[in-house]
Design a protein that fits this description.
The two termini are 30 Å apart. The strands form 4 sheets. A 5-stranded mixed beta sheet has the order 2-1-7-3-4. A two-stranded antiparallel sheet has the order 5-6. Strands 8-11 form a two-stranded antiparallel ribbon. It has 2 domains: 107 residues, no CATH class; 62 residues, DNA Binding (I), subunit A. 16% of the residues lie in helices and 24% in strands. By secondary structure, it is an alpha+beta fold.
Length: 194
């Protein structure tokens, strides 16, 4: 079960208890052991207690906890840690992927304006890859699959198409807005927006 050391299972809060990142248990243990972070011992909504490393390694492992085996016995993996000397909420851009492009473009074909279900659209390179087009916010748009096939490896004007808006990178958002609870860890829900 020590392979969990490298899975992103630990939510990191700043000293104001705002979510700022996700880390692996291995990273969390290093931060805790060097007093850069404290873990939160969480039992329901009412019992939340910061715990230093020296105490953490003595806590019992509960049935719902992940744990790692050491020569000294099992150590509970924290689900939430607090970076005690960090107050800022860093800003980040959403990850460049089809879902982010689709959301940026409002689920609409950027050539026709037609609303699209996710399975009706695809990524289009405005400057096709075959002509040196990059995978970038400024060169990718959401397009209806039939329009994208018709455009093929041509520029929009060569295919008789015109972009409705110029593609741009989205504004940076507070990191808190971009953190998702992919593993469904109940304790994270206390600190993440729905």
């Amino acid at each position: 079960m020590n392979d969990i050391l490298n899975k992103s299972l630990v939510l990191v809060l700043n000293r104001n208890w705002q979510a700022i990142n996700i880390r692996t248990p291995a990273d969390a243990f290093c931060q805790m052991a060097t007093n850069v972070a404290t873990a939160l011992d969480i039992e329901g909504d009412e019992h939340i207690r910061p715990v230093q490393w020296a105490e953490w390694i003595t806590l019992p492992v509960r049935p719902q906890d992940y744990a790692v085996q050491t020569v000294r016995g099992a150590i509970r993996v924290p689900t939430v840690i607090v970076a005690v000397n960090f107050a800022k909420v860093p800003k980040k851009r959403p990850r460049l992927c089809a879902k982010s492009i689709r959301e940026r473009d409002g689920n609409r074909c950027q050539y026709t304006g037609r609303p699209l279900h996710p399975d009706e659209g695809s990524l289009d390179h405005v400057l096709p890859r075959s002509r040196g087009g990059a995978d970038s916010w400024e060169n990718l748009v959401w397009a209806a699959k039939d329009v994208n096939q018709r455009k093929a490896d041509r520029l929009p004007h060569e295919a008789g198409l015109k972009l409705l808006t110029i593609p741009r990178a989205p504004k940076e958002l507070p990191a808190t807005e971009l953190i998702r609870n992919a593993h469904g860890i109940a304790e994270w829900n206390l600190f993440l927006r729905s």
